[in-house]
Amino acid sequence: MAYRLALLNQKGGVGKTTVAINVAGALAARGNDVLFVDLDPQGHGTEGPGLADAYDAAPPSLFDVLLDLDSRSLINELVHEHEEFDVVPSNVDMFSAEPKLTTAMRSRERFGMALDELDRDYDFVVVDCPPSLGNLTDNALLACRNLLIPALAEGTSVRALEILFDQVDALQQGYGVEIDDVGLVANRVETDGEATETRAWFEDIFGGRIPAWEVRKRVARKRAWNEGASIFTHREDCDMEDAFPHSAAHLEEVAG
């Protein structure tokens, strides 16, 4: 089975999708067969790899896969080939998924059931989650059981991560599963006192049990986005490239 990884922080504006795309790109650049799934109704993880047209495509979409248990095998029809990794795009209809899942049978397990239907063997499935806590993020956490956290090195991240950990604990207790936080990506790090203080808090709360990687703000990543690629196929040097291969190497290690 593929190693499934959810990238989640319910605090918006942390660069979650950019981190997710570049983690997927780093894994692919190391020779892994990767599927990137955009579970966020906003569709940035669909636009980022250059698949904006798929976001407005007619059904079936990921929305149908999640809402109709009999349609979950349709996930195979949604897979788009990309230069670096395969992509299951989000769709504008996904904005209706959250309320509809609230009353659906097995509402928090449907995404995992769909991933089980994949007819291609991947080494990694990387899931870009919505910037909120709810049925969609619960689906991702229960399906993946592995969590990579993008966060900003600023004071507002502290409370956001505390809330996230509370939700993870609730799911673990409610479903009798173990959800591992496998790393933290401190994104868009600035060289100021607040960033230093928050990085120290990251170290305190995790106690050194998981690695943390620092990514500074670089325009090259934005230009790579505009080309529909990660920084690993973008034709421009970026001194932040090393952070993502290091995270990919760690993920390969924990995946076994």
UniProtKB/TrEMBL annotation:
Residues annotated as domain AAA: 5-173
Top-level lineage group: Archaea
InterPro entries named in the record: AAA_dom, DNA_Partitioning_ATPase, P-loop_NTPase
Xref: SUPFAM superfamilies: P-loop containing nucleoside triphosphate hydrolases
CDD domains hit by this protein: ParAB_family
Coiled-coil intervals, chain numbering: none
Pfam families documented for this protein: AAA_31 (PF13614)
The protein's name in its UniProt record: ParA family protein
